[in-house]
Amino acid sequence: MATKGEEKAIQADTSLPEKIPFWLDPNKRAIIYQIGVLCMVGLLAWYLVSNTLANLEKQAISSGFGFLQKESSFEIGESLISYSAASSYGRALVVGALNTLKVAFIGIVITLILGTILGVARLSTNWLVSKIAAIYIEVMQDIPVLLQLFFWYAIFYESLPSPRQALNPIYGLFLCNRGVVFAVPESHPAHKYMFLALIVACVVVYLIRRWAKKRQEQTGQIFPIFRVSVAIILGFPLVTWFVFGAPTTMDVPRLVGFNFKGGTTLSPEFIALLLGLVLYTAAFVAEVVRAGIQSVSKGQREAAMSIALRPNQVLNLVILPQALRVIIPPLTSQMLNLTKNSSLAVAIGFPDFVSVAGTAINQTGQAIEGVALIMLVYLCFSLSTSAFMNWYNKKVALVER
């Protein structure tokens, strides 16, 4: 038997952890490897930057973003803000970014609507509707988007007449190779307040929808939210319009010389870009919607029909809420693809950010800075879209009990 002193020595030995050399400790080795990789990446970045700066200095090319303050000396055909050739390169790039944002926003909204309709039509029990949707999806997916842009652009310049022989299907609307020209209401203070009334209406509809949802969960009674929402969204601006005297004066375009004056003009480049992006992306969105709807089991649909829900209620209350968790992730990718594909606008002459930045690069020689700005702008657009869709995905996610 071991003595008391030996037992204490054994306990002391077992209580102390065994010291392991750092090169045999996996945690310490992982830290060392990460530090080594970080140093290698830093050295590579330092080499590339220093080498680039040295080559620019040899060729007497200035670096930096100081050129953004210089006069651009080139015109831009379409702009959402005031711009002239005397403006700076920075303002020109802002114009290009806003044009890209305009195309992306309008394109995404129309694509979601068209893609959802096509996806539901693809599953229709009507044979003709289903086959037309299927043919559209197959054709549009198989034609590259760049070719579609060229096709729609050629339609305007080859098929439509000059402004003097412009097509006039309805009063105030003209179709020609300069684009689509149509009448708009003349500027009036009522329009600003109608827009504010529309925003207030949207907020009211949102609050009513929340109230209706809680009421239905508590009582089971369905509130006619769709009809009430339409009435509020249309009624608030309409009442505001009547309050300000119901102005009806229109700014009708008229032919002056070789072009139209007045109204609003949508250029062929903008229309071709929008049509190409929307029709191409909507085909993929339709498949996303179809897959999401089909992911909901038939038992859910049959259970909803067994309690006498109408087909539109089955779709809105049972199928779509469950299908959204499948639809939203790939739908986000398609929205990002549409935004990034808008850079193909340079091929048909639409002044998006890539086109304007390319002109600035050709004039200033600041290729590295110009490309870096292009990457940064599209990165911001993509991250913003992803952040919004991730927030929406969490908001509509089904909460399991």
How would you describe this structure to a colleague?
By secondary structure, the chain is mainly alpha-helical. The strands form three sheets. Strands 1-2-7 form a three-stranded antiparallel sheet. A two-stranded antiparallel ribbon has the order 3-4. It has helices at 4-15, 26-58, 89-122, 127-142, 145-159, 189-219, 225-243, 268-294, 298-306, 311-341, 353-364, 367-396, and strands at residues 173-176, 179-182, 184-185, 250-251, 254-256, 259-261, 264-266. The chain is built from twelve helices and seven strands. Strand 5 (254-256) and strand 6 form a beta hairpin.
CA radius of gyration is 30 Å
So what's the overall shape? globular
The total of beta strands comes to: 7
Question: DSSP strand (E) fraction?
Answer: 5-15%
**What is the helical fraction, as a range of percent?**
55-70%
Distance between the first and last residues' Cα: 61 Å
Order of helices and strands: HHHHHEEEHHEEEEHHHHH
Would you spell out the secondary-structure blueprint of this structure?
Layout: H1 4-15, H2 26-58, H3 89-122, H4 127-142, H5 145-159, E1 173-176, E2 179-182, E3 184-185, H6 189-219, H7 225-243, E4 250-251, E5 254-256, E6 259-261, E7 264-266, H8 268-294, H9 298-306, H10 311-341, H11 353-364, H12 367-396
Antiparallel strand pairs: 1-2, 2-7, 3-4, 5-6
Helix pairs in contact: 3-4, 3-8, 3-11, 4-8, 5-8, 6-7, 8-10, 9-10, 10-12, 11-12
